[in-house]
Amino acid sequence: MWPAHQNCSVVFSKRSYTSEGAKKVPKIYTKTGDKGFCSTFTGESIPKDNQIFEALGNMDELSSAIGLAQEFCLEKGHIFTDQLGKIQCVLHSVIATPVLSARESHLKRIQFTSATADLENWMDILTKELPPLTNFILPCGGKSSVALHLARTVCRRAERSVVPIVRSGEADPGVVEFLNRLSDYLFTVARYAAMKEGKKEIIYKRPQ
To answer: How does DSSP classify residue 171?
Structure first.
């Protein structure tokens, strides 16, 4: 089970509409952020340079990196591509929902325990097929693998930016655990993709 969301969008703004025949077409621009403020899922207006939006931006970048990796993986027919899509849909929720001001209905949407457990189960299944890891490896192994490694490094940055928000009590501690496990998952699927594509892992060697 994954955190419940009707869609992947968790930062809301008031949108204006234009009429096109009988239906209204929402405009992509809202102008509500022109003064440097944006709203959280709970409706609070916060400056865009707040650490919450720094973390949210990192989450957005992580989702984009995973999306890019997913496209490469789809081309190769990898079995875990659906998992990547599920991960994208849950990345933003905790950060955009301040715990201290959230209602119970909001908090029910941001419980990550089951999502973290799913990552662990997926890793356990894939790891059984992988050769033992006895050395440090470089990001390599074809486009799918390298793109997943890149997503892993973005995930680590996202995790670092979330820690102070959790420490201040504005985000559920479970999000740090989820991101920590997600970086391990991305490392695992990067190795798995390289193996399935017949690519060789390059071992790190100390420069002479």
So the answer is: S
